[in-house]
Amino acid sequence: MKIKKKIKSNRTNLTDKPAKFQGLKKFLKLLGLFLGSILLVILLFFGWINLPVKEVSTPVKIGTTFSLRYAQDIGLDWRQAYVAMLDDLKIRYIRLPVYWDKVELSEGQYDFTDLDWQLEQAKQREAQVILAFGQKTPRWPECFIPQWIGNDDIKRKERLLALEKVIVERYKNNHPEIIRWQVENEPFLDFGVCPPIDPALVDSEVALVRSLDSTKPIMLTDGGEATLWIAAAKRADIFGSTMYREVISPRFGYWKYPIGPNFFKAKRLLIKLFAHQNNAIVIELQGEPWVRGWTTSAPMEIQLASMNAEKLADNVAFAKKTEMKEVYIWGVEWWYWLKTQQHNPTLWDQAKKIVQENQL
After folding, report:
1. pLDDT band at residue 194 under the 50/70/90 scheme
2. Sorting pLDDT into bands at 50, 70 and 90, what band is 208?
3. What does the pLDDT read at residue 96?
4. Which residues, in sequence order, are CB contacts of 182 under 8 Å at separation 6+?
5. CA atoms of 9 and 3, how far apart (whole Å)
6. What residues form DSSP beta bridges with 239?
7. What is the number of domains present in the chain?
8. 224 is in which domain, residue-wise?
9. Which of 44, 155, 161, 346 is the most exposed place for a label (fewest CB within 10 A)?
10. Both 38 and 73 in a single domain?
11. Is residue 236 situated within a structural domain?
């Protein structure tokens, strides 16, 4: 009897195993279908964003960011370079950074002499200015917090809001050249020598600027390739994207993003759906070399391999294919440095041609 029971028990186990195996096999099949579907969607999306896009001949607004700080850093007379940008290139759309450590040298003591001069020159030529301010503004190391702040985070935030109040109240009237306020620069991109990303602080800054001036739109910006844009776009009246096609990665070295203009169209749709944002522009289009170390210290052949007149024209054509109607090109100070100190006007002349071709 015991032998028969044992044989019966073994038969039961044998019939159970195929059932368990079939269940596992079904699960693996469903998992494979699921993962395969995801892979197919990714491949289709990758294929779509790289589909050819026809050339766009319609003019767009061509502007630039001018950094007096960077112009000084590369040995230029920044006022001379600024006037040349206005009078020779005929740039009429300008983003001007306000560097906190340059305008508030000591607590509560402000000096806007240089910014006043830049704005006056722009006004005389009927140029339009985006005024960018915050603790993070364009150019490396991105954040320009005065040394007198020290390591006191509460003081930093309080003094930052105080600075922004002073700026908006100073320039909101009698400055028709200022068409929008930019609050911070890429505040949701972890890049630069900066404090941790702080959405609550950005919200406080945006709310303050809105309360002080409801007549000018507020712009926020974000990295073009590596972020979803939603955090910045949902807080802004106008969203500005960077656009860098060739970069240096610590892991891969020099490489080019494998994306076409449709990638940016897809992200515009994303912020339209999830941030209710319909106003997107290219605030920073690559027009300067991306090299290891300080740009102007690199050998000239490396600089010009990274950026040259042909690449500049190609980048502008690429940006226009995204169907964004404003394109601010990065690198005007470097073009002027090339022209005046390296006797190479190729980038400067190409930029002049681009501006002329896109006159509205």
Report:
1. very high
2. very high
3. 98
4. 95, 130, 131, 132, 133, 218, 219, 220, 221, 240
5. 10
6. 220, 280
7. 2
8. 60-357
9. 44
10. no
11. yes
